[in-house]
């Protein structure tokens, strides 16, 4: 099986950060946040990264020019997370191994979590593996629904959840490992059947499961990995957590 590839979603503009920088270039502890993501992926065993860029794409490429094994896919329209990942599909047509999908605005992704997910994937070979965590206050996050046997049954967004489902503490963190061909297959079946008219990556695990393929959810992510950056307040929270964990500037 060919080595692990990661797709990093890095196309967004940091409008809520009150900045014209691409979000992934916003400094965290004085360093563009995407470097922390790429460091964790490399330390976790990823051999190649595909960065999906969009807003001010050349600035992102320039910042990452010194990094090895990074390729780029361009998202020219903002049509959802599934659409963003699909922009990387032409670079994956010959890839038979695992594809890790992560967000570029989550600098607290941990290399240990990456290794754990990739090791589990190699051992069990599911079509899709979701990295999840249990959160005491899961407000606003998609819940992981399991069947009577404890197996993954689906992701339910909070706005669509029943009262019982809202009490679920296991949440989706937009961290996935797909078998390469299965990811491309599911992306081709995505439909924009939602009010936003967007293509959601969260639909891909359900597509594969409905076809009878094995989809697993593994609650191994650490509490700090629930933190991402969308606002100045969240930036301050992430920086405080990183200092506590011993990150250096």
Task: Map the helices and strands.
Blueprint: E1 5-10, E2 27-28, E3 31-32, H1 33-43, E4 48-53, H2 57-63, E5 70-74, H3 81-86, E6 98-103, H4 111-124, E7 128-134, E8 143-146, E9 152-156, H5 163-166, E10 170-179, H6 180-189, H7 203-210, E11 215-218, H8 232-245
Parallel strand pairs: 1-4, 1-6, 4-5, 7-11
Antiparallel strand pairs: 2-3, 6-10, 7-10, 8-9
Helix pairs in contact: 1-4, 6-7
Unreliable spans are none
Helix content: 25-40%
Count of helices? 8
User: Structural class from helices and strands?
Assistant: alpha/beta
Largest sheet: 7 strands, mixed
Report the mean per-residue pLDDT as an integer.
Answer: 94
The largest beta-sheet arranges its strands as 5-4-1-6-10-7-11
Q: How large a portion of the residues is in β-strands, by DSSP E?
A: 15-25%
Care to describe what's here?
Strands 5-4-1-6-10-7-11 form a seven-stranded mixed sheet. It has a two-stranded antiparallel sheet with strand order 2-3. A two-stranded antiparallel ribbon has the order 8-9. The protein is an alpha/beta fold and 249 residues long. The protein is globular and about 45 Å long. A hairpin with a 5-residue loop joins strand 8 (143-146) and strand 9 (152-156). The chain has helices at residues 33-43, 57-63, 81-86, 111-124, 163-166, 180-189, 203-210, 232-245, and strands at 5-10, 27-28, 31-32, 48-53, 70-74, 98-103, 128-134, 143-146, 152-156, 170-179, 215-218.
Short description:
The protein has 249 residues and is of the alpha/beta class. It has eight helices and eleven strands.
């Amino acid at each position: 099986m060919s080595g692990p590839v990661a797709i990093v979603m890095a196309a967004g503009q940091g409008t809520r950060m009150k900045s014209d920088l691409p979000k992934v270039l916003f400094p965290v502890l004085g360093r563009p946040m995407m470097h922390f993501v790429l460091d964790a992926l490399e330390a976790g065993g990823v051999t190649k990264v595909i960065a999906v860029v969009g807003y001010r794409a050349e600035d992102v490429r320039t910042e990452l020019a010194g990094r090895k094994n990074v390729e780029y896919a361009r998202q020219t329209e903002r049509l959802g997370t599934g659409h963003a990942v699909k922009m990387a599909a032409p670079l994956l047509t010959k890839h038979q191994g695992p594809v890790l999908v992560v967000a570029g605005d989550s600098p607290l992704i941990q290399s240990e979590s990456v290794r754990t997910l990739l090791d589990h994937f190699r051992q069990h070979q599911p079509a899709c593996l979701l990295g999840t965590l249990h959160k005491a206050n899961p407000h606003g996050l998609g819940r992981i629904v399991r069947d009577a046997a404890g197996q993954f049954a689906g992701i339910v967004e909070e706005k669509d959840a029943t009262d019982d489902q809202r009490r679920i503490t296991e949440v989706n963190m937009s961290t996935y490992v797909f078998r390469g061909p299965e990811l491309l297959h599911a992306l081709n079946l995505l439909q924009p059947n939602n009010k936003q008219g967007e293509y959601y990556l969260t639909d891909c695990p359900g597509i594969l499961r409905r076809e009878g393929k094995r989809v697993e959810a593994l609650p191994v992510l650490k509490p700090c990995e629930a933190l991402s950056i969308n606002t100045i307040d969240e930036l301050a929270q992430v920086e405080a957590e990183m200092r506590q964990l011993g990150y250096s500037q």
